Amino acid sequence: MEETVLELIREDELVALASELISAGGENPGGTEAATVVVLAEFARAAGLEVMVSEVAPDRPNLTAVLPGGTRPGLLFLGHSDVVPAGSGWDRPAFEPYVRGGRLYGRGSTDMKGGLAAILIALRALRTAGVELPGPAALACTVDEEDLGLGIRAFTAGTGPFPYSACVVAEPTDLETVIACRGDSYLELHVTGKSAHSGRPADGRNAIDAAARILDLVRADHARLQADADPLLGSGSWNTGMIRGGTGTSMVADSCHLSLDRRLMPGEDPEEILASLLAGIRAAGIDSDGITVEGTVTMEMPGFRTTSGHPLVAGTVSALAEVGVDSAVTGWTAACDGGFIARDFSIPVIVMGPGGLNDQAHQVNESVSVAELLAAARAYALMCLRHGSVC
Length: 391
Description:
Distance between the termini: 20 Å
Order of helices and strands: HHHEEEEEHEHEEEHEEHEEHEHEEH
Shape: elongated
Radius of gyration: 23 Å
Structural class: alpha/beta
Helix content: 25-40%
Strand order of the largest sheet: 1-2-6-3-7-15
Number of helices: 10
Strand content: 15-25%
C-alpha cells in the first residue's frame, strides 16, 4: 500500500499546484488570502477531502481539509496562506512562477505555498489509493501568520473536541525535523511627559529622555538573557523595532512611543514580561515626576518544545529517510503558529517542510527545490499511514 501511495505523488502535479498557489498571491500586509484559499478548496474538494472554510476577517478565510479516518486521534498538518510583500528587485514578476535548474521560483514558493501543495498532494494520494487511516489526517491553513496571527487564534478558539494527537507545521526547514521553537511577542510602550520650550527644558518633562532610560533597562535585560542560553534554542531576546516621539526640535517632547520585539522561550508569558518591565521602570524612578508609562502586548506567538524521544520525531525522521533524506533533529530560533497548537491542545508539535528559512523565505527571487517538494509530499504521506501505530 505504501508503494502505491508514493507512486501516486507525481512531481509535475506537485509543481502545478504549488505554482497555482504562488500565482494567487496573498501579500500581508497589503492583500488578502482569499484567492489562495479558493485554489486550496477547489483542489481539496476535487480530491475527495472534506473542506471547511470560515471567514476570520473580510476576504481572509481559514481552511480545513480533512481526509476522514477511524476513531483514533489523527495527524494535523498546519500551514498559512499569506506571504510577505514581494518588494522590488526580482528577476521576473514575483507572482509568475517558473522552474529553472530544478527549483520553483516565486513569492511564497518556500514560505509556504510549496509546503501547502505537498500536504494536499499527499492527502489526495492517500484518498485515491483508498487507504483507511486509523484516524483523520488534515490540513489546517490559517490567515495572517506573517503579521498578527488572527487565523491561528480563530482556529484554536473555534475548534471543539480536538481529533488530532500530533501536529506537523509545514514551514520551511530544509526538511530538518525541528522539535522546538522560540515564540515572539510585540510590546508597545507609550511614554507621556510635558511639553515646554526647549530654551527652558526644566519647565517640561521630556518623554524621549525617559524612553532612552527605558531602553537602557531593555538592553540590560537582553544581556542577562544572552548569558543563559539554551543549547537548542539560544535565549529570549529584545529588539527595539520603532521609536516615535516629539513634535519639533525646539520643543520638549511630551510623548514617545516604543515598539519592542521580545522573543520568547517555551513557557514564557509576555504579559508577565511586560509587568516585570513596568515594575523595573517604576523601581528606576522613570515613571515619576510628571512622566507616565503605559504598556500593552499587541501580539503573542508562543514557543514550544517536543521531546526528542517522542514517537512523532522518530516517525518523521524515519519517513524522510525512506524517501532519501537524512533529517537532522534540531531547534528553531524563529517562531511559528505551531506554538498555539502545543499550548492550547497539549499535543506534540514539530516543524518540517520544504525550502530554506534563512536563505529563501522572505527573500528576493525566493525559490524551493522541486526535489524537496517531492520528498516532503512523500514523507507526509508515509507519516499519515503510520501515525496510528507510532503516536
